[in-house]
Design a protein that fits this description.
Blueprint (H helix, E strand, L loop, with lengths): L17 E13 L2 E9 L2 E9 L2 E2 L8 H17 L5 E8 L7 E7 L5 H7 L4 E2 L3
Parallel strand pairs: 3-6
Antiparallel strand pairs: 1-2, 1-5, 2-3, 4-7, 5-6
Amino acid sequence: MSKPIQFQEWPDSLSVPYGPYRAVIERVVDGDTVYVLASLGLDEYAYRMIRLRGANAPELFSGPPEERELGKASRDFLAELLPEGTRCRIATERDITTFGRYVADIELEDGTDVTTALIESGHAAPYPR
């Protein structure tokens, strides 16, 4: 279903984040991007690429070799923190500055905030929210 006309041109003053949703990590793409299968409620599910809100990890495929190595280390850290099948909670919003993807806060079962863990470990830099 496309967006109903009643929800088009929604005022910014009433914008709200989507979620929180229950989600399962399907795949880590790089140090700040994952694929999730999210439960949207009412027996609706979506497979989406999610960029972590507030984190900017080094690139994997561009820049000097040293940066690409840091990108691999960041991806590997995130893959260890979020192995396939990890259950989490996400709160998302659409962000046109990141290629139309959704950005999200991801929280693990033990309360760990994934963005905070990445930044504190040195595998990502803070990114304006």
